Amino acid sequence: MTEPPTPRRTAALAVIVACALVGVLLAPVVVTAGDNATTFQFDPHELEAEPGETVTLDLVASTHGGYGGEGIDQLSMDLAYDSDALTVTDVEHGPMLAAENGGADANGSANGDVTNGDDATDGGGSATVDGSVDIDDEHGTVTIEQQREPSSDGAIGTDTAATITLEVAEDAPSTTTLEITDAEATLVTGYPQASLERDATITIGDGGESDADGDDTIPGFTALLAVAAIVAALFWFGRR
Amino acid sequence: MTLPDRSALSRRDYLRSLVAVGGASALAACTSEGDDVEIPSGTDDPDSLPERQHAWNDALTRDDDGNVRPPEHHVLVALSLVDDPTDEARERVEAALQELERAYEWSNEGLLFTLGYTPAYFDRFDGSLPDEVDLPEPRAVIGHVDAFDEFDALLHLASDHSQVVLEAEEGLFGEADEFNGQEIETDLMDVFERVDDHRRTGFVGPGLPAEHTDISGVPDSVPEDAPFFMGFRSGFAESQATEDRVTIEDGPFAGATTQHVESMTIQLRTWLEQDSHYQRVAKMFSPEHADEDLTGDIGEALGGSSGLTDERIEATESDARGGVVGHAQKAARAREDGDPLLLRRDFNTVDGDTPGLHFLSLQAGIEEFVRVREAMEGDDLDAPNANNGIRSYIFPNQRGNYLVPPRSLRALPAAAPDEA
Amino acid sequence: MHERDIDRRTFVRSTGATAGALALAGCAGFGADDSDENGADDSTGDDELPTPAFPEVEDPPDAVYLPTHRESMRVLEPVEAGDYTLAPMLSYPHPFWLVTGSGGEDGVQRVDPEQSGGVHLMFVVWDEETNVVLPVDTGAEIAVSLDGERVGSPQSAWPMISQEMGFHFGDNVPLEEEGTYAIEVEIPPLSVRTTGDLEGRFTESATATFEFEYDREFMLEVTDGVEYLDEAEWGEPGALEPMAHGAHADDEHGDGDGDDGDHDHDGDGHGDEHDHGDHDHHAAIPYSALPPAEAYPGTHLEPVDDSNESSSRDDGGPEADDLPRSGDAAFVATLLESDSRLADGEDYYVLVSPRTPYNRVPLADMSLRAAVERDGETVTDDATLEQTIDGEYDLHYGTSLADVRSGDSVAIQIESPPQVARHQGYETAFLEMPPIELRVP
Question: Locations of Acidic residues compositional bias (chain C) (predicted)?
Fold first, then answer.
């Protein structure tokens, strides 16, 4: 993270083991998915930074998985930024693709049966993320490819797919964006999901009034995680 | 045909698969599975059996609600005459059938069967069928069908034991040596050949449909205890014609009945996976059944009646204008003085690896079937196709009409028996 | 919708029992799009979270509304079959809603695909001569095969309406493997009354067959081409513009994505191969739009003051504003003189044409009745309006009336709302439909 930026390099494979809490998410959650889609957004999605400052943003992906309860096992994310204002110095793969798929039945269960599903479909929490990163600072693009290993049932949930470290240029304009130009999640069945992307806006500060409150996280996101855990736990306990 | 994989199936499932496959090797496999079952033997006195071939009800059990419980396993053996009927052939057929009756008790534990004849069969005779017999050539009735039963005869074998229906069929055609341990002396081989393309099989009973979810068209959501694929009871005592009602009373064929067999595939995926229970109940019975939750999960709350009051039947037209109308409700419009006209002995099938129904119906004359079937279809109603009963879920593809003569005339009857 | 309620009740009921579960936070979570249902953190919502984690319209209005996204589909070459012409279109499997009966809560069923693999199969059926889309439930039967082998059972296609597609037939069809699929569609004779240039036609059933490639390229095409609207527009009154164009430039809600630059519609990363704008290809496929109100002759019946929804609305298209509404459907109602070809003998003909408020999609498979009163006395009680497709006026409900005159009041009773399945944005409209009170000017 501290090494100087190079115009073009390919990061080595990053392997992250996620979800140490094996079994937490074993129980099924029936969700009526709005769309068979994956959303991509930054946390924070708006932040302030000083000229010359180094900041990090999480690129968070969310998916309910497919209608048959299958998770995703591939992510690809193309980012673009103004290379006069920003320099991407590092990209770390996040644990999103390693998330458990507890046999969630996104089908909406036409019979209104909320207890169906099978609580034995855990992957043992041992899935990892293999990935590659290509930073082209000259053109201001980043290409991130990730693969879940092993694919098994795929990942379902909301978590960080990548953490981006940026350095703000000394002569950066007052606002600049980190744009998701293309992002795609693919289900374990090979069917890609529709994607919904949201860019981040970076406001270059005036040298002192940095905003210290909640602006630097997605407020709902933390709550989301907590609620998600409750949901998972409820179903887990509910089945005992 | 290859036998099903024993290791991949439950015992009951395996037995049903063997019935579907048929043949001597299936019988052998089936018999080895059924060693522990004691099949009651039949009678040496043919006169002790009812004169009507279709007199099954007294030989069957009833459930707690008084509904007749049909035998679980069925085979419809399509038959084609080898030569024109002779007295010798008649004796042979009668002798073979009497052997079946000697070997198996006339019951669901043993074997129930009928032998019916098509209009095509009777065409070969100089005389024509008497006026009392209403047996036209089959026609589409509703929509269109791909095939009609134009062979000569249909042997309907039914038992709770799959090895019985298989053994009876194979024994009659030289592929088994014994009927229930009794050596076979007479078979049908010189008289009939089987028409394999039209052989049909099936099953009916609580839990049996749910055992077929390995078939691609059968979703896992088939209710566990449902006796039929579509998830509801059928054949309610109150909505079935009596055996008397479907019997031809007069003329040389007194004691006979007519039989219609309509084979269809069923679209279970949309029915079970897309429609809600409420919608299924409204489409199967009536919107009132759905609004007032009269059926329970699989129709068990209805007991021995389909729950169709006169008001509900009369409301069919206005219900249709309300957007949805029930199958049972529509069909009940054809009742006469409150009495149903059809005695249904239908059963589900996975012939062709597709879920379906062999809608086997007995009635005094084919015209009555047509009338009820048209009422069931409800072309006269304002409901859109998808909500007009279950018509958008079933796809009839084959029909046949039969005369099921009285027992005394079951062996190759002439069209005008008095003159024969 | 019904389904969600069940889930929510279960969720709420369970919440009290396991408050201690918070300790388990920290691992990737499941979707929490129902998180507001426990009443905990609804307030943190809309202004701060840039995008909901899962795209879904919360609590849509009981009216036509803008969905979250524009669908993307592959359009195949139209096929002729007897009197019918049919245009197949394919998208990815997605939810839709079935309507059975009164349109009450029990009669509306959300249908989610059983699996992600497969297609959402659609086809528009029309008459080549008049360009009239045939918008009624004919009971079209579909058979699917892969390399000549039948796949699954035959099935019926649901009649459906969608903002982009108008009236069409369709269903989600699960497919297991990639390959070249053939679809055989058998369309039975049209059972509805036909008039004008359509009279006496569509009396024979016809079978159309088409093929498509179900492969990775297809999947990419139909998912990549999806365009999300700005989430501020999700659930707002309005409708997406019809996919094939020309007739609806007046639709202010048509292109809903405002000036948010984030939708990846143009260019980079996509290239030209997806071509999801694709308008030229669709030019030959008619959209099931009814003629605008002014195209109908005769004496247009006028809403009786305050009896209808129209006066309270200001968000409709320019035309829909003036029309009486019920359940958000706009109604054109006109009285044709006895010289009209639609009228019997010396009678007048009442023509009632319900349509969606923005795109004028015909609302088929309804049951309507009309009653006429004069000075408080009943003149005609309960006349059934028969569903009819006319070569010029398209789908409408009509009947001949012997005695109608200026000043009479005409009540249109809606016995059943349109019994057609709905894509997102139409599933909460045209359900509860109170009667419409009109008068003859």
Answer: 33-49, 252-261
